[in-house]
Amino acid sequence: MGLMKRAVAPVGAVAHAARRPTTYAGHVKELTSTVVTVGMWPTGFRDRGLAELGDPAEPSPIATPVLLVHGYGANKSNWLFVRRFLSQAGFERLHALNYNPLAADIPELAARCKERAEALMAHFGVDRIHIVGHSLGGIIARYAVQVLGLRGVDVCVTVASPHGGVRLAAYGSPLSQLSPFASGLQLRPDSAVMTLLRSTARPVPTRFVAYYSNLDLVVPARRAKIVEPELAATNVLVKDHGHLSIMLSRRLSTSIVDQLAAAEGLPGYGAPVRPLGGARVAAAQGPGEGRDRPSVALG
Predict the structure, then answer these.
(1) Predicted confidence band at 1 (pLDDT cuts at 50, 70, 90)?
(2) What is the mean pLDDT of the segment spanning 242-269?
(3) Which of 13, 181, 237, 240 is most buried, by CB atoms within 10 Å?
(4) Per-residue pLDDT tens digits for 97-146
């Protein structure tokens, strides 16, 4: 019965959302965002690594750097909109990591993420950093922090990342089947990587914030949340966006800025958003109880 309920849950969610006019606008935004993403892709192909960073001695309104990790098949052009909002808020030490998901698996990509984050902190002479990852990028960031023990990460933000795995990955793609190091197949709910993330969840200094949407057909809402109570994550619903259009959402960008600015103690941003009612309450509940409720909703 439980298996059947989980199988039809996405259908019910879409049917429920279809009752609202904003649902159709959301799908239009997703289609438009796909065109925009494809158009921007060539502009973010080149990656010069740390060579593109500015002079570490140059003053910055906010000393803490921010590392951006894109999703499967994308590149750093994915962050154009989010970067603008972060930069306007004073986060000038921004750096996007480019990677090829067909040439390395998730553990290797997480190791690169860890190495780049440590290099960024060393470059700017600081001992903390924020990481923001979209889709697969969020899993890479979480793996680097939780499994590889990356230190100094104050806030780890994930956007539409499949923390619960995605069953679509079980079929892979023609390209991923050709690569023995493909990361796509490791996003299956029962893969060794996803099992490891669940089994090694524990309290860490890093604060996790996971954004998800009700109209994401690639990573359904319930799979984009971090539900392990040990991580005390804040799950934030960004209504009526798809897997790509969420990256062009003003609500998402301003919320990420609010989260990071509050962590920096900047005036006017208040305290960081925390889970409503306390995430650790879920530990005392039965399996799955209360886990489909958003901690915070935007819009």
Answers:
(1) very low
(2) 92
(3) 240
(4) 999 888 889 999 999 999 999 999 999 999 999 999 999 999 999 999 99
Region label for 250, one of left (φ > 0), alpha (ψ between -120 and 50) or beta (otherwise): alpha
Q: Within 13 Å of residue 33, how many CA atoms lie on the same side as its CB? A: 22
**Cβ–Cβ contacts within 10 Å for residue 79, how many?**
23
Amino acid at 1: M
Structure tokens at 263: 């962590």
Pairing status of strand 129-134 against strand 153-159:
parallel
8 torsion bin: left (phi>0), alpha (psi -120 to 50), beta (else): alpha
CATH class of 13-45+63-298: alpha beta
Residues 6 or more apart whose CB falls under 8 angstroms from that of 37 comprise 74, 77, 78, 244, 247
Q: Which pairs from 171-179 meet CB under 8 Å and 24+ separation?
A: 175/102, 176/102, 178/102, 179/102, 179/103
Q: Which two tokens stand for residue 77?
A: 């052009």
| Percent of the chain topping pLDDT 70 | 70
